[in-house]
UniProtKB/TrEMBL annotation:
Top-level taxon: Bacteria
Source organism per UniProt: Flagellimonas flava
Record GO biological process: tRNA modification
Record SUPFAM superfamilies: Ferritin-like
Protein name (record): tRNA-(Ms[2]io[6]A)-hydroxylase
Classification via InterPro entries: Ferritin-like, Ferritin-like_SF, tRNA-Hydrxlase_MiaE
Pfam families documented for this protein: MiaE (PF06175)
Lineage, top ranks: Bacteria, Pseudomonadati, Bacteroidota, Flavobacteriia, Flavobacteriales
One Gene Ontology term of the molecular function aspect: tRNA 2-(methylsulfanyl)-N(6)-isopentenyladenosine(37) hydroxylase activity
Length: 193
């Protein structure tokens, strides 16, 4: 359903289980960055009323998820750690060339966001099925559905604001690029890395 070309190695869950505090901190910042992305789309493309409406709701939802993750951190007696670089997103953002029209820039941002949400959904599914921590298993199962909805929403907007055929071609190319990236990732206690 997600179209990902390379699934996450299930052994990634073993790394997560040994580093719960780290994964929760990383996850919290991923939710915050997702809210920031939604806000940046509102600021960059205010004339796209349907997009603005959806991104407003998304920013609210993502900050709600941030709060939920933060509560899990506090419940375990920890504090939110420092933000770390997201190697996955840094490398992913190198795919599309810089420049181009505003419309092209919008489509590229939407495709990046769709892919990040798809990978997050896949990781949440894996955690929900494989992690031994029952509380976190249920938590990630509930978040998995939201991420799937976000992925499809971003892809829908990319197809709406760009030429559908061209968008679908770029999407497939981005999926192939991401699969190559994933061959070197999945070895850290981060949500995407």
């Amino acid at each position: 359903m997600l179209g990902l070309k390379l699934p996450t190695d299930p052994r990634w869950v073993n790394i997560v289980e040994k580093n719960i505090e780290e994964i929760l901190t990383d996850h919290a910042y991923c939710e915050q960055k997702a809210a920031s992305t939604a806000i940046s789309l509102i600021i960059g493309f205010p004339e796209k009323s349907e997009l603005v409406k959806e991104m407003t709701a998304l920013a609210r939802e993502e900050m709600g998820h941030f709060n939920m993750v933060h509560d899990k951190i506090l419940k375990r007696g920890w504090v939110l750690g420092r933000e770390r670089k997201d190697e996955y997103v840094i490398e992913l953002m190198k795919f599309f060339p810089k420049g181009g029209s505003r419309q092209t820039h919008l489509v590229h941002k939407l495709l990046y966001a769709a892919l990040i949400e798809a990978r997050s959904c896949e990781r949440f599914r894996l955690l929900s099925e494989e992690i031994n921590d029952e509380e976190l298993s249920e938590f990630y199962r509930s978040l998995m559905v939201s991420e799937a909805n976000h992925y499809t929403m971003f892809l829908k907007f990319a197809r709406k604001y760009g030429d559908k055929e061209e968008v679908d071609k770029k999407w497939l190319q981005l999926l192939e690029y991401e699969a190559e990236l994933m061959k070197n990732l999945g070895k850290k206690e981060t949500m995407h890395g």
